[in-house]
Amino acid sequence: MPEHIKKKLQEEIKHLEHELAHELPAEIKKAVAMGDLSENAEYHMAKQRQEFVNARLGQLKKRMAELALVNLANIPHDRAAFGSTVLVYDTSKDEKIEYKLVTSEESDVSKGLISTTSPIGKALVGKQVGDMATVVTPNGKRELEILRLATIHDEAEDAAQAQAGK
Questions:
Q1: Phi and psi at residue 17, to the nearest 5°
Q2: Is pLDDT above 90 for 148?
Q3: Predicted model pTM
């Protein structure tokens, strides 16, 4: 898992755990002191927030576990997958576009960072240079021809060579 994603998730987990252990109990205690709980908006809001924080913590911990299971050895060397940079020719727009396949936490379409779980990402995963990928969008189907592919392994190799050349 990319270190910056791990750190971002860990920070959110730490913040939510603090809120759950310290801030929300204080809010609930303060609201209970106000009396009648049946019409106590502060109490109900604090309890709802507590439920939300618990659910979000569960999601984040599950996602951390999923990302920890990503084994770089299982990522193909010759096909588009997580970490790949793919240059495609979009036949419907008559233009070349470069995408990097990333986790959903990193995705930023404006920067060409496409999640492997997005429609474009799903269409590209498993493709090789010369393959066509069909993406179904709200505006209709798009055909993308894979022009160039650099996998996460290629990029790691390039980085190692650049480091050795210093």
A1: -65, -40
A2: yes
A3: 0.61
